[in-house]
């Protein structure tokens, strides 16, 4: 009693208030939630059968340790998510199994029934796996609430590779309290160390798109650490696993019939070709968990999904298109470099191709050889690119990388292309990625090239009517031999709120590559860009503001300054409709064909928003003072881009877009060029396997329509049936009457059947 008498009433009340606060729900939530960095999860092997149906009702799931305590990593900074997520992992002799329980209001879940890789901004779960633990490359497996797959390959130098595909199984179900996901990833689809006990770096993510696009992860995120996989958790307990040492066989049958206008005929008749059919055969053999051999004879390198047209009316530089062909899936991360020194689309139409990929604990090696029937010959120039076909060629590419500890890596590449007429193009390259600290990375690539010009009669290097010569060599194709060099060095810094990149590179006048993508030469470049992000709390309608700057300077090897640009962007993200708004200002000057253009500038903006689960829209506008490369006059340019992604129901997607540009003479207002490309893609997904789509594209620059209907039945990324056609419709002129009329200029029907056998 004496103790209580010594306490004042004020102290007793204060003590009770503290006790009540400690017992309050808020207090429990704060105390119980603690972000965990680099967590560990132990798993065990299962002998039970797991049916991949999107329902975690097998007994094995309830016996496993679960990954929970997810954090919100974007836009929050390791804060508690508004919904719970549980992840589970187990395995058997053949597969890695992963399950998710995602708690949420099912009425708010966003999902699209579509072909694999086609969904965007859906609710989804993600699994990252770095099987070698060296932070050089990793798998990404993504599944939405309908069980639709997306897979990517991440690498430390080039980031996500969206064209990558693997064989795996997934299913999902929307439930009364959210949705559940099951995955089965065959060990035969993955590459991992050949040892008894595996210890993989893994992270489980969940995308939760609402008014803001929120991302949750199992492992807490340190924004001052730029090494992405270094922050993942670890899964222990996987042992005595290996991929099947079997043969994968990929036969393909393609048949087509095409027609084209005969412009020499008075009535512009269509000439029909015979029905053309062709068989091709590919195969892959997994020698071990880390060595594979792959070969293809007469491979089908057609692309069913046509490349989106790009406006090239005011450029003299070759355009870059992504790679989607199955043969180049395995080992893509190995062959990628800063300079894109192996651009696989230069392997155009091979009679055969053979590839070997080896991955050891710290060493990766890739080798490819092919005989190409139609060989593009590329001549990079100071102000443009020349490309034409020079017949058959033989291609050999050898690439190797070595991890030297601390997430540092060095690599070499040797490539050689020999043309049937005696010409050749070879390079030797060395590259590195050195992690100087958590914030700073130093990466670079250094290349030596040797060129022997092919003996091509009647071929002279012309661009816009001008023949290009140089005092060290000429482009008249007279069998000269010469060497060249190129290099690129970058310092990358990424912190909690800032980004900085300093880039120095050069390509000598005599540098050429016949298997890479280097469209210009005779340049030295200095580029510096940086940004700083200001983040706001959840009560603000602003999520973040990021000012961004970029400076770019180019000189040729004579010391003449060719370009000088400064760019400033102000990027704004909002907490409604996932809205984004960016303002940009660009100013500079450029010397082109010995004509100096000063006072160049661009003012514009870009905005987008996902106003509901059914509607996404984006729009950009730029007003510029530039110049026309064809007429060599200063001009005023206006460009507009707009697109919509509309889903009236989950199985139908309508995607119209338009890209417009107009230029007028800066001094007299005369129109120099004007035109647009409009494209509409309509897709109906009957099931995960069966889909139809129609692409309508109008190119105003050549006044032509492209119409491409397609029926697809896809069992896996490599087992697929296509039935489709393509039409090119536009204005043609009668050679006799000189009258113009609208007609189908080209037409093609095709069928493709491809099936992957895994005996």
What does this structure look like?
By secondary structure, the chain is mostly beta strands. It folds into five domains: 1-32; 34-239, Immunoglobulin-like; 257-281 and 686-752, no CATH class; 290-429 and 444-479, no CATH class; 522-680. It contains five helices and 45 strands. The strands form six sheets. It has a 24-stranded antiparallel barrel. Strands 1, 2, 5, 6, 7, 8, 11, 12 and 13 form a nine-stranded mixed β-sheet that branches. Strands 3-4-10-9 form a four-stranded antiparallel β-sheet, with no helix packed on it.
List the topology elements:
Elements: H1 2-6, H2 9-23, H3 25-32, E1 40-42, H4 59-63, E2 71-74, E3 85-91, E4 95-103, E5 124-130, E6 137-143, E7 149-155, E8 159-161, E9 169-175, E10 178-186, E11 197-209, E12 213-217, E13 233-239, E14 247-261, E15 270-272, E16 276-288, E17 291-297, H5 332-335, E18 350-359, E19 363-372, E20 376-380, E21 385-389, E22 393-403, E23 409-419, E24 424-435, E25 440-452, E26 462-463, E27 466-467, E28 469-470, E29 473-474, E30 481-494, E31 498-507, E32 523-532, E33 534-535, E34 542-555, E35 561-574, E36 580-592, E37 595-610, E38 615-628, E39 633-649, E40 652-665, E41 671-685, E42 690-699, E43 704-714, E44 720-733, E45 740-754
Parallel strand pairs: 1-13
Antiparallel strand pairs: 2-12, 3-4, 4-10, 5-6, 5-11, 6-7, 7-8, 9-10, 11-12, 11-13, 14-15, 14-16, 14-45, 16-17, 17-18, 18-19, 19-22, 20-21, 22-23, 23-24, 24-25, 25-30, 26-27, 28-29, 30-31, 31-32, 32-34, 33-34, 34-35, 35-36, 36-37, 37-38, 38-39, 39-40, 40-41, 41-42, 42-43, 43-44, 44-45
């Amino acid at each position: 009693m004496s103790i209580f008498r010594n306490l004042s009433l004020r102290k007793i009340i204060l003590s009770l208030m503290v006790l009540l606060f400690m017992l309050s729900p808020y207090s429990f939530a704060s105390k119980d939630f603690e972000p965990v960095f680099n967590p560990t999860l132990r798993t065990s092997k299962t002998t039970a059968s797991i049916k991949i149906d999107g329902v975690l009702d097998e007994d094995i799931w309830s016996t496993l340790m679960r990954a929970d305590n997810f954090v919100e990593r974007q836009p929050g900074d390791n804060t508690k998510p508004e919904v719970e997520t549980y992840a589970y992992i187990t395995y058997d002799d053949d597969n890695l199994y992963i399950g998710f329980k995602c708690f949420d209001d099912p009425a708010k879940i966003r999902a699209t029934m579509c072909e694999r890789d086609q969904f965007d901004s859906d609710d989804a779960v993600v699994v990252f796996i770095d099987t070698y633990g060296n932070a050089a490359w990793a798998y990404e497996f993504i599944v939405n609430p309908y069980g639709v797959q997306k897979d990517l390959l991440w690498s430390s130098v080039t980031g996500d590779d969206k064209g990558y595909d693997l064989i795996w199984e997934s299913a999902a179900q929307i439930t009364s309290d959210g949705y559940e996901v099951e995955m089965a990833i065959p060990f035969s689809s993955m590459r991992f160390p050949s040892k008894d006990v595996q210890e993989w770096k893994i992270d489980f993510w969940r995308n939760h798109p609402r008014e803001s696009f929120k991302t949750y992860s199992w492992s807490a995120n340190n924004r001052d650490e730029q090494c992405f996989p270094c922050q993942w958790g670890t899964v222990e307990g996987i042992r005595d696993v290996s991929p099947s040492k079997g043969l994968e066989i990929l036969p393909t049958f393609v048949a087509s019939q095409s027609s084209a206008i005969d412009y020499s005929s008075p009535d512009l008749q269509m000439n029909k070709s015979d029905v053309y059919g062709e068989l091709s055969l590919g195969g892959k053999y997994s020698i071990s968990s880390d060595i594979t051999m792959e070969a293809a004879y007469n491979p089908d390198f057609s692309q069913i999904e046509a490349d989106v047209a790009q406006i090239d009316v005011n450029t003299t530089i070759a355009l870059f298109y992504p790679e989607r062909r199955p043969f180049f899936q395995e080992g893509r991360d190995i062959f990628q470099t800063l300079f894109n020194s192996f651009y696989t689309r230069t392997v155009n139409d091979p009679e055969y191709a053979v590839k070997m990929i080896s991955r050891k604990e710290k060493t990766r090696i890739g080798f490819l050889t092919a005989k190409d029937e139609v060989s593009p010959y590329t001549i990079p120039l100071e102000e443009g690119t020349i490309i034409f076909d020079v017949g058959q060629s033989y291609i050999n590419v050898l690439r190797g990388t070595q991890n030297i500890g601390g997430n540092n890596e060095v690599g070499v590449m040797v490539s050689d292309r020999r043309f049937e007429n005696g010409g050749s193009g070879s390079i030797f390259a060395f590259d590195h990625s050195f992690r100087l600290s958590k914030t700073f990375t130093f990466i670079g690539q250094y290349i030596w090239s040797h060129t022997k010009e092919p003996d091509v009669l009647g071929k002279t290097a012309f661009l816009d009517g001008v023949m290009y010569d140089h005092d060290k060599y000429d482009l008249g194709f007279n069998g000269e031999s010469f060497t060249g060099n190129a290099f690129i060095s970058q310092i990358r810094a990424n912190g909690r709120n800032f980004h900085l990149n300093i880039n120095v590179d050069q390509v000598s006048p005599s540098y050429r590559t016949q298997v890479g993508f280097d469209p210009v030469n005779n340049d030295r470049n200095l580029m510096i860009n940086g940004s700083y992000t200001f983040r706001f709390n959840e009560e603000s309608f602003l999520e973040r503001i990021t000012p961004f700057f970029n400076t770019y300077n180019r000189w040729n090897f004579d010391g003449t300054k060719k370009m000088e640009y400064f760019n400033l962007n102000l990027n704004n993200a909002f907490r409604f409709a996932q809205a984004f708004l960016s303002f940009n200002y660009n100013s500079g000057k450029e010397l082109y064909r010995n004509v100096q253009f000063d006072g160049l500038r661009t003012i514009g903006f870009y905005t987008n928003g996902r106003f509901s689960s059914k509607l996404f829209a984006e729009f950009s506008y730029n007003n510029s003072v530039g110049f026309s490369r064809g007429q060599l006059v200063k001009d005023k340019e206006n460009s507009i881009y707009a697109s919509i992604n509309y889903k009236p129901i989950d199985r139908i997607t309508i995607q119209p877009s338009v890209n417009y540009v107009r230029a007028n003479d800066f001094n007299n207002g005369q129109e120099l060029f004007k035109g647009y490309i409009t494209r509409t893609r309509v897709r109906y997904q009957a099931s995960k396997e069966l889909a139809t789509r129609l692409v309508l594209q109008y190119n105003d620059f050549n006044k032509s329509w492209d119409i491409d209907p397609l029926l697809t039945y896809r069992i896996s990324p490599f087992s697929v049936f296509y039935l489709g056609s393509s039409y090119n419709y536009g204005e043609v002129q009668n050679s006799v009457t000189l009258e113009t009329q609208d007609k189908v200029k080209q037409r093609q029907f095709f069928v493709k059947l491809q099936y992957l056998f895994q005996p």
